[in-house]
């Protein structure tokens, strides 16, 4: 579950944040015992799915898991207010694969962005994971979208890197993004570096399209 729900359960994958980050990791497995965890994090810049959000941001999150069921929240400061996200779902195993289905809501103060909500699903087999989200903006209900990503964990060949290709699809939200992620733990802290490239069709401010970006993340879970 934590590998697939990267934004929320790993400080690194922001879009892989608590990175998500992300967006970034454990496979989705059903646990019999319940657990509660918390995380705090810092990002040098906040990018999500190849779309620029704000300059440096701090975040806080909380997660509850019980028998494959997960519920959580994630908060971050953005340039003109706060983002507060809520998510829930179920992770399970089937035919040797780890899968999940869930719901996520993204909400903002101070009109930073339109609120939007998603249905999420994903599957992971070994080092390969595929995630898909279908969402709708609450203040522009005709503006629905999809986002699909494919990630490859290169730890299988001894490299501490994750390669991800993502694609937006929709009437106005579109574009592709590619990222390379590195993460490690030092003195109990999660440290990450993400280097990414989006294309000239990516949604968002024009000056952040067709751009190469790099993000440093620092996080702690307890």
In words, what does this structure look like?
The structure is a single chain. The chain has one helix spanning 6-9, and strands at 34-48, 51-66, 69-78, 81-94, 97-108, 116-125, 128-137, 140-153, 161-170, 175-186, 189-198, 212-221. It is an all-beta fold and 222 residues long. It has one domain (6-221): monomeric porin ompg (Porin). It has a 12-stranded antiparallel β-barrel with strand order 1-2-3-4-5-6-7-8-9-10-11-12. It is globular.
Following the backbone from N to C, one meets helices and strands in this order, namely HEEEEEEEEEEEE
CATH C-level: Mainly Beta
Average pLDDT across residues?
85
Radius of gyration: 16 Å
Give a short account of the largest sheet.
12 strands, antiparallel, barrel
Total domains, how many? Answer: 1
Helix content: under 10%
What is the CATH fold-level name? Porin
Strand content is: over 45%
Shape: globular
Helix/strand/pairing category: mainly beta
How many angstroms does the end-to-end distance come to? 18 Å
- The CATH superfamily name is monomeric porin ompg
- What's the count of strands? 12
Low-confidence stretches: 1-31
């Amino acid at each position: 579950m934590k590998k697939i729900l990267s934004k929320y359960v790993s400080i690194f994958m922001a879009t892989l944040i608590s990175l998500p980050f992300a967006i970034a990791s454990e496979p989705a497995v059903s646990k019999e015992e319940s657990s509660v965890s918390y995380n705090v994090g810092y990002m040098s810049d906040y990018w999500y799915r190849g779309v620029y959000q704000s300059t440096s941001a701090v975040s806080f999150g909380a997660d509850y898991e019980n028998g494959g069921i997960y519920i959580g929240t994630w908060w971050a400061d953005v340039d003109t207010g706060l983002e507060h996200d809520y998510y829930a779902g179920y992770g399970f195993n089937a035919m040797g694969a780890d899968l999940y289905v869930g719901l996520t809501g993204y909400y903002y103060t101070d009109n930073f962005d339109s609120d939007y909500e998603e249905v999420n699903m994903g599957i992971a087999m070994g080092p390969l994971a595929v995630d898909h989200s279908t969402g709708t903006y609450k203040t522009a209900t005709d503006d629905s979208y999809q986002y699909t990503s494919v990630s490859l964990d290169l730890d299988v060949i001894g490299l501490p890197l994750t390669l991800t290709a993502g694609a937006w699809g929709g009437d106005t939200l579109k574009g592709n993004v590619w990222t390379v992620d590195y993460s490690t733990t030092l003195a109990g802290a999660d440290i990450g570096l993400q280097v990414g490239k989006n294309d000239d069709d990516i949604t968002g401010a024009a000056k952040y399209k067709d751009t190469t970006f790099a993000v440093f993340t620092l996080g702690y879970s307890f």
